[in-house]
Amino acid sequence: MSLIPSLFGGRRTNIFDPISLDIWDPFDGVFTSARETSTFINTRIDWKETPEAHIFKADLPGLKKEEVKVEVEEGRILQISGERSKEQEDKNDKWHCIERSIGKFLRKFRLPKNAKMDQVKASMENGVLTVTVPKEEDKKPEVKNIEISG
């Protein structure tokens, strides 16, 4: 028996062979879904602050706006979540490679006190979600000159 087929893609099937690749793995399938969705779960979101607003941008290619939720929670928490479902498979399909992530994602951001939580707006264009949270104007302290007597 040659080792070359097993090292270069051939699958050995003898379960009594100590070098066989057909070994029972107690963790088989446990981490599969986590690995498949890890990229999607870790959706990257940019947050920038301008003089007028806090702006969040998330790349969500292939998602429709109906598959994404933008919510405001108590305590000035902005929550962005969504889910990409698995494609329908035909019994006759033969997959060669699956790299696109599926699953849910959830990101939460605590906004500063100057955020106008009741005026949050969201839009989605070409797979990019943009959430705009207007800011209250900076209140400059009123300075009153005091005349010095004496």
How would you explain this protein's 3D organization?
Helix content is 9%, strand content 31%. The protein has 150 residues and is mostly beta strands. The radius of gyration is 27 Å and the shape is rod-shaped.
Strands, helices and their partners?
Layout: H1 4-7, H2 32-41, E1 45-49, E2 53-59, E3 68-73, E4 77-84, E5 103-110, E6 121-125, E7 128-134
Antiparallel strand pairs: 1-2, 2-7, 3-4, 4-5, 6-7
Name a few traits of the molecule.
3-stranded antiparallel beta sheet; single chain; disordered N terminus; 2 helices
Number of helices: 2
Structural class: mainly beta
Oligomer: single chain
- The run of helices and strands is HHEEEEEEE
Mean pLDDT across the residues is 78
Quick one: biggest sheet? 4 strands, antiparallel
Widest beta sheet: strand line-up = 1-2-7-6
CA-CA gap between termini: 109 Å
Kindly provide the radius of gyration, computed on alpha-carbon positions and rounded to a whole number of angstroms. Answer: 27 Å
- In helices, the fraction of residues equals under 10%
> What are the segments in which pLDDT stays under 50 over at least 5 consecutive residues?
1-13, 19-24, 29-39
Q: Please state roughly what percent of the residues sit in beta strands, choosing from under 5%, 5-15%, 15-25%, 25-35%, 35-45% or over 45%.
A: 25-35%
Q: What is the 3D shape?
A: rod-shaped
How many runs of DSSP E, i.e. beta strands? 7
